[in-house]
User: Fold this.
Amino acid sequence: MEVEISRRKFLQGTVAMSVVGATAATSLLSNEHAAPEKSGSVSFHATKTGTGKSHDVATLCEMCVNKCAALARVEDGVVTKLNPNPLFPKSKNMLCARGNAGIQALYDPDRLKYPMIRIGEKGEGKFKRVTWDEAYKAILNGTDKFPGLSKILDEEEDNRSSMLFCAGEGMAEHTFKQFYQAFGSANWLNHASICLQTVASGYGVTLGVYPQADLENAEYIIMAGANRAEAIVTPDTMDLFKRTKGRGAKLICVDPRFTNTAAKADKWLAIKPGTDLAFVLALTYVTLTEELQNKEYIEANFNGYEEYSKSVIENKYTPEWAEPITGVKAKDIYTIAREFAAAAPKAIYYPGRRSTFAKSDFQLRRAMAIFQALHGAIDNEGGLIFGSKLPLKEHEGLMPLYDRAQARAIVKSTDSKGHQGYDDCAVVSGGGSWISWRNHFLEDKMPYKVRGMFCYKHNPMMNMPNTTKTAEMLRKMELVVTIDTMPSDTVMYADVVLPECTYLERTDPVKTFGGVEPSFAVRNKVIDPMFETKPVIEILKGLTTKISKPLFEISKKHDEELQDLIDEEGEEKAYTEFDLTLPFVHSQEELNHHAVAMYIGAAEKLHHDGVFYPKQDEYYKQLAANKFQYYPEKKKYYSTRGGKPKTPSGKVECVLGSFTAKGIDAMPVWRDEYEFSVPAGKFKLLTGRHAQFTQSGTSNNAMLRDLMPENFIWINKRVAEQKGIKFADMIEVSSSIGKTQLKAYPTEKIAPDQVFFIHGFGEESEELTWAYKNGGNDNMIIEDHIEPVYGAAAMHETNVEIRKV
Amino acid sequence: MARYGMVLDYKNCINCKACEVACKEENGILMGADKHRIWVGTGEIEGQYPLLDLTSNVFQPSQCQHCDDAPCEDVCPTQATFTDENGVVRVDVEKCILCTYCMNACPYDARYIEERTMTVDKCTFCTDTRLARGETTTACQNTCPTKVRIFGDLDDPNSEISEVLRVREHFSLKSHLGTNPKLFYLT
Assistant:
């Protein structure tokens, strides 16, 4: 087949992902690039690689969460190119568009360059440049604009939990967490509850682990609610798309939207949003009634099989039952169940990694895990795998016992009906429930006062539903300290801004990557930090040196246990248990050396090559220009437990009796309230990702913006026509909590009762040249619906109206 | 001396645009969607939701085809466009007068205006960057997540590209024009 595409068409396509044939596009583009509103010409660092002297530094990418291995080419102290590092089994010699554009993050003129303290009103974004010492001092003692830690902790009688700590995902999150632990707060929030909490936990309680998928060898893959062509995960994305379209792996894509993954699939099922659970239950029904399951595996590895099987059959979760609920044809469900069973155990119902979208998400993930396990496709080549992981020597942290520190600020349910959990979710995991925490804080429902927060590499203003409430929360926090690389919307609400260097300017903790081909990889510093920025480990070293002793004095004043300890052991000895500087005494390089000390030559290899695993020199081979061997086939860890799940019982857990007491279904069952519905005249808002941006984290990247200048709202073409909406018309999208504006993309890739746009656009920080008011912000309009089991944000439960403006 | 060409296993392409960025960063190309040496073309989906035609949505990476019989070279009045000793179609910035005849003559729309030198620019197979340093891959091949591209010497019977072209069916774009492209798309 020959498809001919001209450059002219391509230009149009660039404007809105793959919008071709949109007539308004070219003029729109040329306007933007000819007359940038704000110093656009200086916001891009064009580097042509040279042929003279250069050196490569092995590092790990941080443009998204994947941590692909890169080789940074340095010429005359300037990073001129990021190339893939072929040595890493996880990323297999690739860097995506974002990885390549990392240079623009390093040389972004808008970067935070020096420490600052707030001099204007909260959220106004008016700061004064200060020295690091002045910044640390302001955190300790405050200014006339905000209180410092001394005042807060003294007034709260050394309740360390009066400070919240939150962090985004990243290799140095661990370093920041050590500060949190040493500080002694119990309030920790990370990205989990606005990310993969329910999928990780759903698989965790059912199979004992959130498994990986061997897409390199699977012959049948159901990918539902995951979009690996656009939300890239390594090695899954690379493994999968070389084999679809009749080339070894049959891919069934289940998604309400026609994504790039759908385009690469053998079949696309346009499911109604939030009804995947009914789809899986119907597949399970076919498997059980047609006896397609792996009885031997079930006999050896299941708990509660009879009960679950009875539930699915007696509830009559037939494909005919599922058809009107899901919009997927019954005959397709029969076919898929049979084909899946025929391909098993080289068959995968892909777990996915996405955010929680519907309130049924936890049960959905459980049903998916059980469906997979019914076929025995667990811990095997071509199935879901546990893999192997090389152990690292852990670095000991500091966890002082502060007697006055209160437990985590979560509110127990007062429900009289025997609901034993918390008041809006049953379980609170390590990462907490961001939305629940924020809303309780705003409603003054906390068991004690939380007065300030440390925020590391995290952008709550952009990352969770209901931006208006997040802004209120930040305004209400008396002391906000942010550690970040960019002047994000959240940084605008800071009292003290501590500028971190980018990932190319620091060494991060060495990390072990488990899987079929386990390895260690490390992010080595490529160039020295620019401006006055520092790696977080050095920031925390400086900060703790400043605050440790003064805060100890406050503990001494309020903490009777500590007073007793001092009486017994003397102050000097007692202080050693409370010395906040201890976790940061050693440099990151020293810590990494220590972490891999048990492997001969590993530290040197990691420093030089970025990657290490035992027998690497013997195993690693380049087989062709695009093909590498990391482990010989026979040495790969496809199966490590003979299929035995990793739950405490060693069985697949179909029935979770303990959850009933918390008001949660012990088994996945369908409930009427899960059904998809949209009031007339409204649209269900869907959100998601694509391959050129990582949420708001890359929103100011000049190169990526060049690929996609802004986000567009997908509106069904026929609906748009009825409403007189044309491509690039400005649309106001509103929900019960707010509104946002962005341009229209009429397309048949979306259903008439749904709209979609990409997350991470429409920032309000004026310090971001490219991202400022660029496109629409989904979190201005996504309502704060809470998933009932783990308190995750349910992001596809909002109905919106659209209006041409 | 070589005769460089490229094979594209285009069915692997997921339109992630890694190649476009790698090319820009490697070769120092200016910003702007109209300044790409390489790109991924797409066709708009056909059909009506949810009955869409999966085969209508194809991602096709494209760029200068480095034609053996290059129309751009024929029309150039100053011989700025030339085929170098390795079969790579290039532009001599000293000779280019920006008449843009070549841009019109190119059937693949592979040329654009470089605004710093005010000359016509195009894909060079990384000749003055990677190849000049002795590397054996182009930036686009090296970075591609799904490994669409294989670059190599068509005159070397033992090269990977020659081997692939012997055993895999392939086609060229607009082959009826007789330009003899050195880019080959695997079926």
